[in-house]
Amino acid sequence: MRELTGYMIYHAAEGQKNNAFVSMFQHAGEAKGLRFQLVTREQYRQLPDPDFVLNRTRDAKVSQYYQQKKIPVFHEADIVETGNDKWKTLQLAKRYWKDSVEGKIPDTLFLPRSCDHTEKQTIQQITEWHTKRIKECDRSGRKQDVVIKTVDGHGGSEVCLLSSERSSNTTEALCELLQTKFLHRDILCQQWIDSDSKDIRVYVVAGQIYAAVCRQGEHDFRSNFSLGGKVSEYQLSESQKSLIARWIDCLGGEKLAMAGIDFLPDRDGRLVFNELEEMVGSRMLYSCTDLDIVRDYTAWLAECLRKSIV
Question: What is the pLDDT of residues 74-131, one digit of tens each?
């Protein structure tokens, strides 16, 4: 049985940053007859065709290139495109869940980069959205702040909170945010979910729940591990597993080869969908569990590829 060669394609800087991660795949692949090779986004078209590809660029065009050549690529272009555009992900979720109360999604306002975010009309749109949240706060007795984020941001660095407690200078705060962080970017204004700065990351391998961790933010509403949040293993209940299985089906099913789905646990104990992490990392999982997701994912890849290639 011949060895199969796979490219792990990254943007150059990301490839250097994730060199240890690539090495983990190379080590795991040795026992399964898979040879992983680090390739940059800038050079992949110049190289001989591999047997398979792990696209780690967040660029759907890379996946399309190999799909046209009938070469297995993880993930395929539709998953890459949806998983790296928060607005497209939410639109997909809305179509899937329709009026179901189970698939809870934050209320969201989308503002494309085609509009000038500093124009009075845009400021007014967000201000009205913010005012609506404050009115809901008055009725429910809970804060209804607004989260503003870019549709393609990662790691929490492009996420800001507009507090209902600052309603007296909302316009001033908005202008500052829009002119510094969000100029010429597609952005979302989203209902803030009171999750006590926690979120649940569910790891998915081969379209199945693999594991879950809980991230707890410290001194920040964001819970991202890269921003100093603490992480611990999280045991899903049977009802949560059932709900998440439907979310996996919604977001790609078996086409989710190795991905993450993030949820915010609200004060009523419900899991509110946050986002799909198509190019999921594994540092958090290794930091708080004995699981070896790279080994297990590689084993699944080997089985999957032998069936489709050999």
Answer: 999 999 999 999 999 999 999 999 988 889 999 898 888 755 555 566 777 777 777 7
pLDDT at 304 > cutoff 70: yes
Q: How far apart are CA 169 and CA 260, in angstroms?
A: 37
Close Cβ partners of 290 (under 8 Å, ≥ 6 residues apart): none
Beta partners for residue 263, in sequence order: 200, 273
Longest dimension (CA), the chain: 70
Cα pseudo-dihedral 305, 284, 150, 183, rounded to 10:
-120
Give Cα separations from 298 to 25, 168, 177, 284 (angstroms).
Answer: 7, 54, 42, 18
CA dihedral 275, 276, 278, 284 (to 10 degrees): 70
Give me 94's structure tokens: 């809305």
Phi first, then psi, for residue 276 (nearest 5°) are -100, 125
Nearest alpha carbon to residue 149 among 126, 120, 166: 126
Q: Does 225 have pLDDT greater than 90?
A: no
DSSP string covering the chain, please?
---EEEEEEE-HHHHHHTHHHHHHHHHHHHTTTEEEEEEETTTGGGSPP-SEEEE-SS-HHHHHHHHHTT--EES-HHHHHHHT-HHHHHHHHHHHHTT-SSS----EEEE-TTS-TTSHHHHHHHHHHHHHHHHHHHHHSS---EEEEETT--TTTTEEEE-GGGGGGHHHHHHHHHHHT-TTS-EEEEEPP--TTEEEEEEEETTEEEEEEEEE-SSSS---GGGT-EEEE----HHHHHHHHHHHHHHTGGG-SEEEEEEEE-TTSPEEEEEEETT---HHHHHH-S--HHHHHHHHHHHHHHHHT-
Residue 2 token pair: 């011949």
Query: What angle, 0 to 180 degrees and rounded to 10, lies between the N-to-C axes of helices 120-140 and 170-180?
Result: 130
Taking the model in full, what pTM does it have? 0.88
